[in-house]
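Researcher: I'd like a candidate sequence for this fold, 88 residues long. If you have to choose between options at a position, lean toward the conservative one.
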């Protein structure tokens, strides 16, 4: 069973990213899992359309948080999959 941790308890999620997720209506690990990394990234991008959102800080961080890995350890193939998914 997945513990429903607060966002800042997850790997890769600091205060600023947690605030951005909260702005998008994502307040817990369970909510981030439900949205998934791609949708969470798109929601934040929608809230901040004029801001560049580095993939490693957002998309990859969300994936790593859900897998309990540093964002750079999620693997190049998975990074490519995620990057393709946000382009759709």
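Model: Candidate sequence:
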């Amino acid at each position: 069973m997945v513990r429903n941790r607060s966002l800042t308890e997850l790997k890769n999620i600091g205060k600023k990213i947690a605030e951005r997720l909260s702005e998008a209506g994502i307040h817990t690990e369970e909510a981030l899992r439900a949205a998934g990394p791609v949708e969470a990234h798109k929601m934040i991008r929608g809230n901040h359309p004029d801001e560049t959102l580095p993939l490693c800080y957002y998309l990859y961080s969300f994936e790593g948080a859900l897998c309990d890995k540093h964002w750079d350890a999620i693997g190049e193939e998975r990074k490519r999959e995620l990057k393709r998914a946000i382009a759709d």
